[in-house]
Amino acid sequence: RPLLSAVDLHKAYGSTPALDGATLHLRAGEIVAVMGASGSGKSTLLHCLAGIVPPDAGQVHYRDRELSAMSDAERSALRRTEFGFVFQFGQLVPELSCLENVALPLRLGGTRRRVAEQRAAEWLGRLEVTEVAGHRPGEVSGGQGQRVAVARALVTAPRVLFADEPTGALDSLNGEQVMRLLTEAARHTGAAVVLVTHEPRVAAYADREIVVRDGRTRETVLAER
Ligand code: ADP
Ligand code: ADP
C-alpha cells in the first residue's frame, strides 16, 4: 500500500488550470522524480501532496488519512512531524548559524539545545559540511547552503522529503554533489522523496519518474538502476 497517494487531482488558479487529472502513488522509501516543462504543474502537485495547497477535486491520502478531512492544525502537525522540505533557495534563517538552522526543527519540537545541536552536528557531518557549522547562511556557498538545507529537512527523520528544484540555483558539479548526498541521506533515514525537477541529470537519481504535461501525469518506468 502506498505511503502517500494523490488521485485525479484538479486545481486552477482563477481561470489558469494548474492540475488537470494528476495521479501519483509514493511508496515508503522510494525516490520519485516529477519532471516536466516550466508551468506544467509540478510545484502545484508537490504543494497538494504536502497539504500546502488544497486541490479543487481529487484526493490526497497520507497512510489512511485524507488530507482535506484533516483540520489546519492536524495538517501542519503532519508537515512538521512526517514531512521535510527543501526548496530552490532562501529557506535558511539568516540570523542563525548553520548549526542552529539544522537544530531549529528539533528545538521547535521541544528537544533540548544540547541534544538538538549534537544531532545537528551529526547531520552537517553526513552532508559533508561540518566546516560551516558556526557560519551564517549568508557566509557560505550556494552548494553548502543547500547541503545545510537538506540536513535541516532530514534531521527530524521525516517519512517524506519534498524537494522542489533543490539544485535549481547550483552549477552542475554542485548540483550532482547535493543530489548524491540528498539521496544517500534519504536512503539512510528511509525517507521517501518527491523530487521536482526539469533536469534529466537530477531525475537520474530517482527510482522512478513521473512526467507532468499541462497538469496531467504520465508515468515513465525507468531502466533498472
Ligand atoms: P511548474 O512547477 O511545473 O513550473 P506550477 O505548478 O508552478 O508549474 O504552475 C502551473 C500553472 O499554475 C502555471 O500556469 C502557473 O503560472 C500557475 N500557478 C501556479 N501557482 C500559482 C498561483 N499561486 N497563482 C496563480 N497561478 C499560479
Ligand atoms: P517555483 O515553481 O517557481 O519554484 P514554488 O511554488 O516552488 O515556485 O515556490 C517559490 C519559492 O517560494 C520557492 O523557491 C521557495 O523558496 C518558496 N516556498 C514555496 N513554498 C514554501 C513553503 N511552504 N515554505 C517555505 N518556502 C516556500
From TrEMBL:
<dbReference type="InterPro" id="IPR017911">
    <property type="entry name" value="MacB-like_ATP-bd"/>
</dbReference>
<dbReference type="InterPro" id="IPR003593">
    <property type="entry name" value="AAA+_ATPase"/>
</dbReference>
<dbReference type="GO" id="GO:0005524">
    <property type="term" value="F:ATP binding"/>
</dbReference>
<keyword id="KW-0067">ATP-binding</keyword>
<keyword id="KW-0813">Transport</keyword>
<dbReference type="InterPro" id="IPR015854">
    <property type="entry name" value="ABC_transpr_LolD-like"/>
</dbReference>
<protein>
    <submittedName>
        <fullName>ABC transporter ATP-binding protein</fullName>
    </submittedName>
</protein>
<dbReference type="Pfam" id="PF00005">
    <property type="entry name" value="ABC_tran"/>
</dbReference>
<dbReference type="InterPro" id="IPR027417">
    <property type="entry name" value="P-loop_NTPase"/>
</dbReference>
<feature type="domain" description="ABC transporter">
    <location>
        <begin position="4"/>
        <end position="225"/>
    </location>
</feature>
<keyword id="KW-0547">Nucleotide-binding</keyword>
<dbReference type="InterPro" id="IPR003439">
    <property type="entry name" value="ABC_transporter-like_ATP-bd"/>
</dbReference>
